[in-house]
Amino acid sequence: xxxxxxxxxxxxxxxxxxxxxxxxxxxxxxxxxxxxxxxxxxxxxxxxxxxxxxxxxxxxxxxxxxxxxxxxxxxxxxxxxxxxxxxxxxxxxxxxxxxxxxxxxxxxxxxxxxxxxxxxxxxxxxxxxxxxxxxxxxxxxxxxxxxxxxxxxxxxxxxxxxxxxxxxxxxxxxxxxxxxxxxxxxxxxxxxxxxxxxxxxxxxxxxxxxxxxxxxxxxxxxxxxxxxxxxxxxxxxxxxxxxxxxxxxxxxxxxxxxxxxxxxxxxxxxxxxxxxxxxxxxxxxxxxxxxxxxxxxxxxxxxxxxxxxxxxxxxxxxxxxxxxxxxxxxxxxxxxxxxxxxxxxxxxxxxxxxxxxxxxxxxxxxxxxxxxxxxxxxxxxxxxxxxxxxxxxxxxxxxxxxxxxxxxxxxxxxxxxxxxxxxxxxxxxxxxxxxxxxxxxxxxxxxxxxxxxxxxxxxxxxxxxxxxxxxxxxxxxxxxxxxxxxxxxxxxxxxxxxxxxxxxxxxxxxxxxxxxxxxxxxxxxxxxxxxxxxxxxxxxxxxxxxxxxxxxxxxxxxxxxxxxxxxxxxxxxxxxxxxxxxxxxxxxxxxxxxxxxxxxxxxxxxxxxxxxxxxxxxxxxx
Length: 622
Ligand SMILES: Cc1cc2nc3c(=O)[nH]c(=O)nc-3n(C[C@H](O)[C@H](O)[C@H](O)COP(=O)(O)OP(=O)(O)OC[C@H]3O[C@@H](n4cnc5c(N)ncnc54)[C@H](O)[C@@H]3O)c2cc1C
Known about the structure:
Largest sheet: 7 strands, mixed
Shape: globular
Strand content: 5-15%
Bound molecules: flavin-adenine dinucleotide
Structural class: alpha+beta
Distance between the termini: 67 Å
Number of strands: 15
Number of helices: 22
């Protein structure tokens, strides 16, 4: 029997040896005080393994063989009600029986109390079987955990001295979701506002009766036939992000003893892929909702939710990459051309090698980022419990995890979502003419993958976020940055080990590229300043306007995010190679591919852009 967890040596390396489970499990289990919890971290990890094996078995045996049927049956809207196809209905029925809708929800609330990282690993395993099933699955446990976190953040969750949840604001919703009776969704996008959330129009007004009512419509909402909608709406008449607030809006409510629709599904989008996933257009007509947190906090809370969702898309992409790679390997071994299997032809062998290295490198990145995010959040939860007394050192450690998660999240989303498109397309190409037919399913993997760089924040938005964070760091402490640059150069020159030398050369080129962007920005600012005369010079340097002062950086954001990803993955793999010698070959293979890419993107940053920016500035003046 195939098992999508057990047959994956790289995933098992991380699970068995790579992940430092002890601190994470200790935080998740609140120091092992809970009466119904595991005795120690090793016991807990054994339970996680059993869950992953169960999901691995279920994905391989019950989902993957039915992916074509799921696509064919699709989803439909009948009299305002959404219907999944019978194959998916049966799959979700079995998932409910297996009790897998609460992987990362506390035990006392019916869940398995696994870390969020565990939940991400199940998402990769399931994503290898079918993207639509994985996505809908994620809107169960994912939303239950979000509701719990939101309640914790606003202070409406209480714990006992054993670290168990005693009460939480959305207990009923979490119960419904964990029991498999319901799921949730995130309603941000509108027809005129996707990346630019400040342009949202949906409006929430508090009535004299104290009830919030929401009016407006949302588009492209995944699993939008949910009972629990997290809705972003305006509570002030400004086109700014601090005008947005977050609401929990149930799709059906009870009124005068009757169940009525509070959120309407108007239509389902017809898409090129993920046909088994519901993507809905919704309308809110005086829909009643509960304010989450405070007025004006909506964007901040949504960003927090989206961090997890972005890491989730990273794991979803990894699952699809694994499926495409394995399909390509199997086909290339069978298919003969010019006297030998195509896998033996150098070009195809080269594709397969790069696919394999890409998946392993990006998995290491995704697990590192997910671990940092989980640790940062779990420590916060731990400190919300009675009797918690974190030391200064604990707080510093938590802040380091938080910074690392913030740095890695856009890289994970960007790199994995871009890679899955390249990888599924390469798989299709390896299949030749058969790749263009539906027979093998290679084209389905590509169609399913194409949305990954679009949803949960486009690739461009991820690149802009990474750019902003990096440049802010450089500008905040230029001396530190210059020391980093010099340090990389010295280490590259002094390194005795080829791998260390290559890594430090990549770091050095990354610093040079960042330095070039900063110098170009300063040059642009200087030109503006002197053109206004000496009197305006100091004023100009006091105020930076992202829309005009950061043009050079904005233009090269994607080139920079590619460099940053290549370097950070190399750092993670080189570090692993030092601790686990059997990982050295992987680190070397990553660096072989990544070093020339870094040089190429460095050259694009340092040699292109001024001509285009000049003409753009000209056209904006005209
Ligand atoms: C299948 C599917 C499922 C989805 N699920 C959900 C969901 O569950 N909930 C939800 O709220 N939304 C969902 N979305 C919506 C999705 O998040 C948006 O489509 C996405 O954020 C992009 O917004 P947009 O379509 O309005 O494109 P736009 O924001 O108009 O962007 C168009 C293009 O311009 C680029 N761009 C925009 N601004 C800039 C800039 N400043 N600099 C550089 N480039 C820029 C974008 O990257 C993109 O390439 C889903 C979409 C799809 C297709």
